[in-house]
Specification:
The chain is α/β, with parallel strands linked by helices. It is built from 24 helices and 18 strands. The structure holds ligand NAX and potassium ion (K).
Length: about 550
């Protein structure tokens, strides 16, 4: 697990290092800027080749882009970079990048959004260093307005563009504070070649991964997404939450984290973590244990014609290692179920009384309710299941059944429960929290999916796993993690019918094995994505449990 920081947490870590005298802010900025250049050369080694270099005097002479034949016969030209600097320390990093590239013979054009006199001290030093190298700093906005799209032309013909406009300090409303700042965001940045964002693409809130809206009436601009679309994002020390949640991943391109020599992140309850590979020993089974040592899960099913979802959960629970799995079937579906199952067992569960009777068997240590269950059956069985105080997963219909009275559900939940809502179910159970999350933010740091899941878990009094490509899991004490299915873990084929039922089964199976709710939810979410990656395109829900043996083998389980 690695930490995913907020801007405030990053500032605390940075300030503590500076206060301890280990490092200065200026040194951190130098390392950050150099880290960006290093990451660029690692990503595009062709840019690191020396033969492109020319003398510094020619470095600002851009000239028109040659035709292909001309280019073939011409002397090698210097590589061209445009660096867009903002008014804070993100801009300071940009000046370092500009200097380092210029020292390597690149032709570098720097545009400053803001007033050089008002730059914060470290950024100001780097502005001076850039100027001392003979570097010119163009005022950004006047260039756009006066030279009729000059900057645009440069951007679209540059070999590299650096976005150092806003980083973790993006806080104010883009429109109302600076009615003209939108112009930076009005560029079709997705079409710019090799656009590299320093820390975070400008316009993306690093805490929430949301883009900030602007008041289109005040600025007179068309509505749009006012954020840069980067091909590569280079961040420092640790990834930030915004790199992994909401629309952040879609705008970051690829994220590289560069070490800038800060100390390890101290353990603090408020710090959210990215779920990483579970340790194999957790998942291994004891060589002497019998099946009952690995728990017995009960998965309640729906009626006739509605049993498939619970079977998917059962398959998931078995494959993840539950010793036994029993499907609790209403009479109408007994024949259907019997003709479909082999390894899972089944038992008749006819209503509240039926479930009470079945739960007298205390070996049933993990319950799953929801997949394909039907809301009526869920309303009848959920209270009985919760009163039994077993580890319990509530998914799908077991959540929607309480849309009209979520408080009644919360009153019955206990700390052995895991709720697994997707976006729609989340809205039904936590409408006020969802409304806050879905509000388009105008200021940073914006309310995030992490904030929303934490608040929901606190209210529910149990673990909440809020699904999505950015699944967030939180417990009532504020512990929180993100299972990011982005970048090299992108698993778009997981968005398929029944995949949530398998996830509920994985969690139930792990709970049966004795995992704590938070650990079960985190491990299941991680395995779920790994199974999808293992199978690849063409995946359907049935395939997911079948990938577990291969995933386990790779983990060394
Ligand atoms: N925190 C750290 O440990 C380090 C930070 N560094 C860099 O510093 C950045 C953070 O610097 P800052 O805190 O100065 O923040 P930024 O440089 O991200 O931006 C803050 C500046 O933008 C202004 N601003 C914010 N919202 C605005 C809006 N909507 N319209 C116009 N202006 C707006 C602020 O008033 C401030 O001047 C990081 O992203 C990173 O790039 C690095 O130099 C290395 C170390
Ligand atoms: K940036």
């Amino acid at each position: 697990m690695t930490e995913l920081l907020t801007a405030a947490q990053m500032r605390v870590i940075e300030q503590a290092a500076i206060d301890s005298g280990e490092v200065t802010g200026l040194e951190l900025m130098e390392r950050a800027g150099r880290g960006v250049v290093e990451a660029i050369f690692e990503e595009w080694p062709e840019l690191a080749e020396e033969h492109h270099g020319l003398t510094p005097d020619l470095a600002t002479d851009w000239g028109p882009t040659p035709e292909p034949l001309e280019a073939f016969n011409a002397e090698p030209r210097p590589l061209r970079a445009v660096v867009l600097c903002g008014p804070g320390n993100n801009g300071g990093d940009g000046f370092v990048v500009a200097r380092v590239l210029k020292e390597r013979g690149w032709a570098v054009e720097v545009f400053l959004y803001g007033n050089a006199e008002k730059l914060p001290p470290d950024a100001r030093v780097n502005y001076e260093r850039w100027s001392g190298l003979g570097g010119i700093c163009h005022p950004w906005l006047s260039t756009i307005y006066d030279n009729d799209g000059d900057l645009r032309g440069k951007l679209f013909s540059a070999d590299l563009t650096i976005d150092a406009v806003f980083g973790t300090g993006l806080s104010r409303d883009l429109g109302s504070v600076h009615a003209d700042v939108w112009s930076a965001f009005d560029l079709d940045t997705g079409a710019i070649c090799r656009l590299v964002a320093v820390d975070v693409p400008s316009g993306v809130c690093s805490d929430s991964g949301e883009t900030l809206d602007i008041d289109c009436r005040a600025t007179g601009v068309d509505e749009g997404l006012f954020a840069f679309q980067a091909e590569l994002t280079v961040t420092f020390h640790r990834a930030k939450l915004g790199h992994h949640i909401a629309v952040g991943p879609a705008l970051c391109g690829k994220v590289v984290v560069k070490d800038i020599g800060l100390p390890r992140v101290p353990a603090a309850p408020g710090i959210c973590r990215a779920i990483g590979e579970p340790l194999a020993p957790w998942l291994r089974k004891s060589s002497t244990g019998h099946k009952f040592a690995n728990g017995h899960a009960l998965i309640l099913t729906g009626g006739f014609g509605k049993t498939g979802a619970a079977r998917l959960s059962a398959r998931g629970a078995l494959r993840v290692g539950a010793g036994l799995v029993t499907l609790g079937v209403p009479p109408s579906a007994q024949m259907e179920m019997a003709s479909h199952i082999t390894a899972p067992m089944m038992t008749r569960v006819e209503g509240a009384e039926g479930l009470k009777a079945v739960l007298e068997d205390v070996r049933l240590n993990a319950l799953c309710l929801g997949p394909g269950m039907g809301q009526e059956r869920a309303r009848e069985l959920v209270p009985v299941a919760l009163a039994a105080k077993r580890a319990t997963v509530l998914d799908a219909d077991a959540l929607s059944a309480f849309s009209d009275e979520p408080e009644a559900l919360f009153a019955q939940l206990h700390e052995q429960c895991v709720l697994t809502p997707h976006g729609g179910e989340f809205v039904r159970l936590f409408p006020d929290i969802a409304a806050k999350l879905n509000e388009v933010p105008t200021k940073g740091p914006a309310y995030s999916k992490v904030d929303a899941t934490r608040e929901a878990a606190k209210r529910a009094g149990c673990v909440v796993l809020f699904k999505g490509p950015d699944t967030v899991i939180a417990d009532p004490k504020g512990r929180c993690s993100v299972n990011s299915a982005h970048y090299d873990r992108a698993a778009p084929w997981l968005a398929t019918a029944g995949s949530g039922d398998v996830l509920a089964g994985f969690i139930t199976g792990l709970l049966a094995r004795g995992f704590a709710p938070m650990q079960a939810a985190e491990t299941a979410a991680w395995l779920h994505v790994e199974c999808a990656l293992e199978f690849g395109p063409g995946l359907i829900a049935e395939d997911l449990p079948e990938q577990l043996p291969a995933v386990f083998r790779k983990l060394g389980v």
